[in-house]
Amino acid sequence: MIEAVIFDVDGTLVDSVDFHAESWERAFARHGHDIAFAALRAQIGKGGDQLMPVFLDAAELKRVGPAIEKERGAIFHADYIDRVKGFPGCGDLFRALRERGLRIALASSSKAPELKVYKAAAGVDGLTDVETSSDDAEKSKPHPDIFEAALARLEVGPDRVVVVGDTPYDAEAARKAGVASIGVLCGGFAEVDIRAAGAARVYRDPADLLAHIDDWAI
What is the pTM of this model? Predict the structure, then answer.
């Protein structure tokens, strides 16, 4: 029987994946790297520490990596963050989980200020018990750091928790933390990839999670 649910945020509760990919695409381009949007989108769900090494060698990473990551953040905040919308059903889902006595944690690769905006967009402000951001993890997903930080704050064993995320990196990080995971498709990743990374079940979006809450929140 589970006691808590840990939610990823980008692509799981809010529709932000394309915006992040566009921000990275523009930031790389400003530093002379023409990287396809699709290639970048496939890496969203990782933090910059894990995303940039996919596209930059060690020398380039050291030379321009920090500047690219800083530029990405500036672009996202200037042009995209105000356009992020929550997926339907997030607030109702969180309220239903709380009515069942389950605790709720957010575990995002985003920075704390972005997380604050996302909570408002998703309609879940005031409905969480624990929140962790990239500030709480040495390495981002698919490393387990962010989920381990959430577990420590929840003070619940990994066998009493389920992770919900939209990417294979969420499922992989959960598996490494010893936590079962559920996938959602609203972030645009393929079900086959999410399952291959370890997700036990896959649903369409938060509204679908709510519709099938008796199947997984037990």
Answer: 0.96
